């Protein structure tokens, strides 16, 4: 049995699934700036290594992230450098339509 070719809609849906979770979005935004080790990613994002592992598996399955073993550590990076540019562009468009409130008060009127 051969490899299934995905339609454009299926590819976009996979990308949407990856971005639909705040932890996965945080991983992608962190990796946009360059490769990182799983333990460092977990610390930077504020999740356990087990939780991060599950999200990284999803991102690998979606084809957005690749893993490279380096001894006892695993380094993760975006699967294609164009993804970093695309994530930056997407964030820029979204923020121009829906500004983010950066204040720490939940009742912020912005």
From TrEMBL:
Coiled coil: none annotated. Residues 3-98 form the HTH arsR-type domain. Pfam families: HTH_5. InterPro entries: ArsR-like_HTH (IPR011991), HTH_ArsR_DNA-bd_dom (IPR001845), HTH_Metal-responsive_Reg (IPR052543), WH-like_DNA-bd_sf (IPR036388), WH_DNA-bd_sf (IPR036390). GO terms for molecular function: cadmium ion sensor activity; DNA binding; DNA-binding transcription factor activity; lead ion binding. One of its GO terms (biological process) is response to lead ion. This is ArsR family transcriptional regulator. It comes from Arthrobacter terricola.
């Amino acid at each position: 049995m051969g490899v299934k070719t995905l339609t454009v809609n299926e590819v976009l849906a996979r990308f949407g699934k990856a971005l639909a979770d705040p932890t996965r979005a945080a991983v992608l935004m962190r990796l946009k700036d360059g490769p990182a080790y799983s333990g460092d990613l977990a610390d930077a994002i504020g999740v356990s290594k087990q939780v991060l592992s599950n999200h990284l598996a999803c991102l690998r399955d979606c084809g957005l992230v690749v893993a490279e073993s380096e001894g006892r550590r695993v380094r993760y990076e975006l699967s294609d450098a164009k993804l970093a540019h695309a994530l930056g562009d997407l964030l820029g468009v979204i923020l121009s339509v829906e500004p983010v409130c950066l204040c720490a008060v939940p009742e912020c009127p912005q």
